[in-house]
Design brief:
Blueprint (H helix, E strand, L loop, with lengths): L1 E7 L9 E8 L2 E8 L7 H27 L3 H29 L11 E7 L2 E7 L3 E5 L3 E3 L6 H7 L5 H5 L20 E6 L4 E5 L1 H9 L3 H5 L4 H14 L6 E7 L2
Antiparallel strand pairs: 1-10, 2-3, 3-4, 4-5, 5-8, 6-7, 6-9, 9-10
Helix pairs in contact: 1-2
Length: about 250
């Protein structure tokens, strides 16, 4: 497996509230991305608390399962992974909510969270907010669905795909880690995964919705090179938000 990730403040923002990490534990590969919700003071703190709380709890549960079932880990993991992901998001949500409530953070601080767990021929995903995951085969196909106002209007047939690209409330999301006492994450499972995946914050995906990035995805870039050129193009188009890009290649 090859992977790379980069985050950039963008052109117009003064602070980068995006954060990402990669971890390997119990024979699983974990990729995590959080985007502190724009407009909320403390978005960077919310993202930092959420990503590390989530990662630590998920790693703990995966290691516990591995230790308890040993050679049967592959058999049992599919039965437990969704539970582990939802438990981890609950812990992350509570940690951000409490930090804001007791004055360690800012009132209203919250963050998106996107997690991918890869184990052999399985890919599991949990998403809160509007950070996205795409399959690149070779051009990107969106896997996750935004928890957003625009997505709800699309689902209801009230706007078209073209209208959605330019909607003035495009970045209004319905769910975020730490925004409320409870959080709902969307769970996805892929068997026989593709060779390449993209995880990104809306600093990239908003531009991909409007402009063609096909030439970049079809080129023979390494994961590191592709991350860099995607960020460069987003900044060239205005860089109106923080930009985080993760590329994962599965052997």
């Amino acid at each position: 497996m090859r992977y790379s990730g980069f985050t950039d403040t963008g052109v117009t923002r003064q602070q980068n509230q995006d954060i990402f990490l990669f971890r390997q534990c119990a024979d699983c590969f974990i990729a995590l991305l959080c985007d502190g919700v724009g407009g909320h003071l403390g978005g960077d703190m919310a993202a930092d608390i959420a990503i590390h709380t989530f990662a630590d709890k998920l790693e703990e549960k995966l290691n516990d399962l591995k230790e308890n079932v040993n050679d049967l880990f592959e058999r049992y993991l599919p039965n437990y992974i969704e539970k582990f992901l939802h438990l981890s998001i609950d812990y992350a949500n509570e940690a951000v909510w409490k930090a804001a409530s007791i004055g360690k953070g800012k009132p209203g601080m919250c963050t998106t969270l996107l997690c991918t767990v890869i184990y052999k021929h399985h890919v599991w995903i949990l998403s809160v907010g509007d950070s996205r995951m795409y399959e690149i085969a070779p051009l990107p196909r969106q896997i996750t669905k935004d928890q957003s106002l625009v997505q709800s209007l699309l689902d209801a047939g009230q706007i078209s795909e073209e209208n959605a690209k330019y909607h003035p409330q495009k970045n209004v999301i319905f769910s975020a880690v730490g925004a409320n006492k409870k959080v709902e994450g969307d769970f996805y499972h892929i068997e026989q995964p593709a060779k390449r995946y993209l995880l990104c914050s809306d600093g990239l995906s908003d531009y991909m919705d409007v402009y063609s990035f096909d030439d970049l995805f079809s080129a023979a870039y390494s994961p590191e090179e592709l991350c860099k050129v995607l960020i460069q193009k987003s900044n060239a188009l205005g860089g109106k938000d923080n930009i985080t890009v993760l590329i994962i290649e599965i052997d």
